[in-house]
Specification:
By secondary structure, the protein is mainly beta. It is 13% helix and 40% strand. It contains three helices and 13 strands; from the N terminus they run H-E-H-E-E-H-E-E-E-E-E-E-E-E-E-E. A hairpin with a 6-residue loop joins strand 2 and strand 3.
């Protein structure tokens, strides 16, 4: 793929990201999660016409019991109204990295801390390891299974200064039938909790913290005051 083509595809990806986060059920639209509720119609009673509701469920991180809830999304949320865009580094082909994926037999779950969980962890399914060499250092990274896609939650020294403080996310592309994977860090993105306080995002585990500043991908969501 030529550099021009790659840059064009990256520009299209950026446009799609903006469409996604500003959609009626995008990251900026989440305004409330009510655990214990199970009737979206009842929760919507009295809400503005711009608000919609969806069901969700989870396993309580302390007890393991299944919990149900309802999320409220507002297509005219304050976050959408004040959103100006996503600050992003320029495309750089040097940050398209090659790595190797190896399956792990059986069901392996790795503990991930979450931003709003007061320090305790949740075990997430990690079906294999990503082996990456970056700037002469070898890493074994844990990407968890996110509805059939590998999602890498990683940190680097730019977090909290240039980029979102809790780390960034990256979907990992696997080549079918091979161990080869591509980590295009130009597509590292701000996690949902960088757009709405009503998300509870996983944090990078120690093995996913890179020593080198990753000046690629999204930096921060920008809002006007």
């Amino acid at each position: 793929m030529s550099e021009n083509t790659a840059a064009q595809q990256h520009a299209a990806w950026r446009e799609e990201r903006l469409r996604a986060v500003t959609s009626p059920t995008g990251n900026l639209a989440l305004v409330e999660t009510r655990w214990g509720a199970d009737d979206p119609a009842a929760v919507l009673a009295g809400q503005p016409a711009t608000v919609t509701a969806t069901r969700l469920s989870r396993h309580n991180p302390l007890t393991g019991a299944e919990e149900r809830g309802v999320r409220l999304w507002d297509a005219a949320s304050p976050a959408i109204k004040s959103f100006e865009g996503i600050d992003t580094y320029p495309y750089d082909p040097a940050w398209v990295l090659q790595a190797r994926y190896t399956d792990v037999p059986g069901d392996r779950r790795v503990p991930f801390q979450h931003a709003q969980d007061a320090g305790f962890t949740r075990d997430l399914p990690v079906p294999g390891d990503l082996h990456l060499t970056l700037d002469g250092r070898d890493y074994t990274l844990s990407a968890f299974d996110d509805d059939g896609r590998l999602l890498l939650v990683f940190g680097d020294p730019t977090n909290g200064t240039e980029t979102y403080g809790a780390g960034r996310f990256l979907f990992v592309e696997r080549e079918p039938g091979t161990e080869r994977v591509v980590l295009d860090l130009n597509r590292a993105f701000v996690p949902p909790c960088g757009f709405s306080e009503h998300y509870n995002c996983p944090m990078p585990p120690p093995q996913n913290r890179l020593h080198l500043p990753v000046r690629a991908g999204e930096k921060l969501a920008i809002f006007h005051r």
